[in-house]
Structure to design on (368 residues):
């Protein structure tokens, strides 16, 4: 029995000395619990609403007040024309637009009904349906309040005319394919980039490479070039499959999409280079690379809306490369926006590439 206890004590000592094992055993469950408790939510919040009010009557003003006061919606913009409304959608600043025509209140009184146009960003079908329901419930409550004050107008009706933008068929694959592309490229490129360097360390051939006339930085970066070419082939394959097998459209510029995808691929490979500076074995590199799946799925907007998350998780999602790529890919593939509307995503990914490259080369040990 004494020997058995001594073996248990020895095993405890080995585990406590291994920081990576302690991190996986103690930190990962906490992170997963927090993500599932706060980030994983199908509830849609912070719906950004734009209003084009051409009537300027009492009912439309009441509707604007109601939208601004609703905890699930926010009245962010009052557009001056229909062109401004579409511009807000292209810039990603509006989820729903409510358009009140001229004489809204007078049509309700004299004709017994009044139409209101509802424009919804249908890029994400499930969220678009929920956002539309929020606005329609608000319109229904306004009609009920008006009928309660004026019993003679009880039969009057507000008729919503709905139009889904960008994805009128409400096909879910239009939304998920760009996200899945971001996740697959993240996993494959990070793993390839990290293993390529760690393999040389593990087999003992890195010393031979570092003794060559080329600088260590050139040697390290040259090892990533073949993987970048292979990743570009993967990008072409995934793009062809999504277009001709799954039927996902390419509404925007193909050149802009390919450029953004290759930039994202480069960021993921450089992230793999950074991982290689933290581990010494291929197995550890694979384990660390797999850990990137968790933030990519839950904090990138792939499956759950970022705007519905707590502010802390929204700030953390800023450092997730997949968030910016998925946003750019959806805009180009589904919304068909011009390249100028994804410049923010591109600049953020460029900044990530520069920071990761500098930090990785600084941390890389030229003496083994």
């Amino acid at each position: 029995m004494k020997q058995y206890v001594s073996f248990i004590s020895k095993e405890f000592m080995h585990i406590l000395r291994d920081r990576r094992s302690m991190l996986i055993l103690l930190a990962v469950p906490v992170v997963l619990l927090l993500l599932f408790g706060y980030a994983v939510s199908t509830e849609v919040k912070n719906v950004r609403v734009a209003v084009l009010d051409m009537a300027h009557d009492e009912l439309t003003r009441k509707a604007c007040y109601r939208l601004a006061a609703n905890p699930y919606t926010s009245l962010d913009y009052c557009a001056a024309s229909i062109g401004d409304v579409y511009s807000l959608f292209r810039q990603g600043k509006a989820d729903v637009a409510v358009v009140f025509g001229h004489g809204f209140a007078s049509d309700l009184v004299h004709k017994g009904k009044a139409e209101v146009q509802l424009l919804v960003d249908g890029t994400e079908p499930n969220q678009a349906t929920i956002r539309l329901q929020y606005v329609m419930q608000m319109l229904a409550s306004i009609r009920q309040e008006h009928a309660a004050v004026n019993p003679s107008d009880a039969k009057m009706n507000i008729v919503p005319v709905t139009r889904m933008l960008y994805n009128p068929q409400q096909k879910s694959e239009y939304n998920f394919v760009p996200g899945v592309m971001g996740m697959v490229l993240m996993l494959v490129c990070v793993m390839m980039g990290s293993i390529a360097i760690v393999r040389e360390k593990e087999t003992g051939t890195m010393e031979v490479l570092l003794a060559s006339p080329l600088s260590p930085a050139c040697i390290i970066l040259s090892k990533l070039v073949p993987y970048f070419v292979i990743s570009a082939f993967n990008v072409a394959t995934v793009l062809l499959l999504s277009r001709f097998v799954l039927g996902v459209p390419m509404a925007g510029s193909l050149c802009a999409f390919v450029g953004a995808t290759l930039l994202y691929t480069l960021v993921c490979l450089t992230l793999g280079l950074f991982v290689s500076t933290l581990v010494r074995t291929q197995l550890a590199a694979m384990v660390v690379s797999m850990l990137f799946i968790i933030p990519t799925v839950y904090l990138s907007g792939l499956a759950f809306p970022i705007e519905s998350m707590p502010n802390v998780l929204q700030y953390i999602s800023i450092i997730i490369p997949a968030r910016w790529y998925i946003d750019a890919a959806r805009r180009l593939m589904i919304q068909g926006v011009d390249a100028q509307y994804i410049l923010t995503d591109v600049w953020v990914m460029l900044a990530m590439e520069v920071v990761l490259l500098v930090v990785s080369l600084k941390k890389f040990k030229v003496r083994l």
